């Protein structure tokens, strides 16, 4: 696959970047910490066509592909643009007013019975789309209420809603399943942009900050941090662009499988946020430095549309089915259990009874998880020579079904941790 941008895509990216630089500069974004989502600027995004990129021209959209959508979302992430971006985009063409921005649409997966829902940007929403195994349901935001929580990301306010109405069904289960896959890829594009923003912030500071009469970027320890950040961005970019190509041409690669890869790889963006803080030294921990905004948004988005261990189990199952199963301890079942064990060991701890995860002192070491998973695949001789053909993935990554473990996840675009 050729991941070089076309001339049209370069022009598209430049146009979105110009809009973000003019209307979503860091001062304007930080002002939304107190004032909430700026609906005037939100309408400008819609007028530019951000939310109608993949809507057919016959329906008033731009009629472009997912490869175009991900490069736009990459820039939105780079400039820390707040709001329910993924929900608004997916709802365009399904919910009236979503494409032109007159209706602000949020998204989440329906929690298990009795569990609270974590709704992001509730005060700004007009409609909340809820995904479950029966389809997509539209719920009027004014019918929802609950206490505001202290969010992980100051630009992503969150409320705990105890009772979530059933709502009006606006699409069937096949659309709900597609939204999970598409939303995972768009979220990965946002994380790619955030990782790139953290890299740019760190390298700019490393060039300007002087120590011992030299820029700190000339010191080997800082060089290594910045080069690692650049390498991560390229790895995430390859996964996200490949998944976008799979969405545009599912006969080439299975979109569900590609989305699982994005789910795992895009989580490395958090390492860029961490390293950005470290390059800034003691200043990096302060509220005034923007490094924490990139890191916190990445953490929030990392819990959108499932967890890393879900994707790892799906990939392990796919790779094992691609080969003849072996018996005893070398079976595919043993490999899937290995993947589950490796990833579950990295889960954040949960607050009993709240459904809100709390981060412990140690964040997940994704590099170790990915390395151990690959080693387990090799030991079990389940690595295929190529990616699975379309239709041979680990099953549709649809919304949670009743009784499924982990079905009580919070907000669809992220689950800010209180």
What would the principal axes of the Cα set say about the shape?
globular
**Adjacency order of strands in the biggest sheet:** 1-3-4-7
Task: Write down the Rg.
Answer: 21 Å
Rounded mean pLDDT score: 82
Can you characterise this structure?
By secondary structure, this protein is of the alpha+beta class. The protein contains 13 helices and 11 strands. α6 packs antiparallel against α7 (220-248) and α7 packs antiparallel against α8. The longest helix has 36 residues, at 173-208.
How would you briefly describe this protein structure?
With 418 residues, the protein is α+β, with helices and mostly antiparallel strands. Helices cover 47% and strands 9% of the residues.
Considering the chains and any ligands shown, give keywords for the structure.
single chain, 418 residues, alpha+beta, four-stranded mixed sheet, disordered C terminus
Secondary structure elements and their pairing?
Elements lengths: L6 H17 L2 H10 L3 H10 L17 H13 L6 H7 L13 E5 L7 E4 L6 E6 L2 E6 L7 E2 L8 E4 L6 E4 L1 H36 L1 E2 L2 E2 L4 H29 L6 H11 L3 H11 L11 H11 L6 H14 L10 H13 L4 E2 L6 E2 L7 H14 L39
Parallel strand pairs: 1-3
Antiparallel strand pairs: 2-6, 3-4, 4-7, 5-6, 8-9, 10-11
Helix pairs in contact: 1-4, 4-6, 4-7, 6-7, 6-8, 6-9, 6-10, 7-8, 7-9, 8-11, 9-10, 11-12, 12-13
């Amino acid at each position: 696959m050729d991941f070089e941008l076309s001339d049209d895509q370069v022009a598209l990216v430049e146009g979105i970047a110009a809009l973000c630089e003019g209307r979503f500069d860091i001062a304007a974004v930080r002002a939304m910490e107190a004032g909430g989502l700026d609906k005037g600027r939100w309408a400008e995004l819609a007028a530019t066509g951000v939310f109608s990129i993949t809507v057919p021209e016959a329906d008033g959209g731009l009629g472009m592909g997912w490869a175009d959508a991900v490069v736009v979302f990459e820039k939105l992430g780079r400039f820390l643009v707040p709001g329910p971006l993924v929900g608004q985009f997916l709802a365009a063409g399904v919910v009236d007013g979503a494409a032109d921005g007159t209706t602000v649409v949020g998204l989440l997966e329906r929690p298990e019975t009795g569990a609270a829902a974590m709704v992001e940007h509730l005060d700004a929403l007009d409609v909340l789309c809820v995904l479950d195994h029966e389809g997509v349901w539209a719920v009027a935001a004014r019918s929802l209420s609950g206490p505001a929580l202290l969010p992980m990301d100051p630009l992503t306010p969150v409320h705990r809603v105890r009772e979530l109405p059933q709502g009006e069904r606006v699409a069937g289960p096949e659309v709900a399943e597609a939204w999970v896959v598409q939303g995972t890829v768009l979220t990965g594009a946002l994380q790619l942009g955030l990782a790139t923003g953290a890299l740019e912030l760190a390298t700019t500071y490393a060039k300007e900050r002087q120590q011992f009469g030299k820029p700190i970027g000339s010191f080997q320890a800082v060089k290594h941090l910045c080069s690692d950040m650049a390498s991560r961005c390229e790895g995430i970019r390859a996964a996200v662009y490949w998944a976008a190509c799979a969405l545009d041409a599912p006969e080439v690669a299975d979109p569900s499988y590609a989305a699982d890869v994005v789910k795992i790889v895009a989580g490395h963006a958090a390492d860029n946020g961490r390293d950005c803080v470290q390059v800034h030294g003691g200043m990096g921990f302060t509220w005034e430095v923007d490094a924490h905004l990139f890191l916190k948004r990445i953490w929030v988005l990392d819990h959108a549309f499932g967890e890393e261990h879900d994707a790892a189990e799906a990939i392990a199952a796919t790779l094992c089915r691609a080969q003849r199963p072996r018996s005893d301890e070398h079976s595919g079942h043993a490999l899937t259990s290995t993947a589950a064990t490796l990833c579950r060991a990295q889960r954040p701890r949960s607050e009993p009874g709240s459904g809100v995860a709390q981060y412990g002192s140690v964040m997940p070491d994704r590099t170790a998880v990915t390395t151990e998973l690959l080693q387990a695949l090799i030991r079990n001789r389940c690595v295929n020579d190529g990616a699975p053909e379309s239709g041979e993935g680990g099953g549709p990554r649809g919304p949670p079904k009743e009784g499924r473990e982990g079905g009580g996840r919070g907000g669809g675009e992220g689950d800010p941790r209180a």
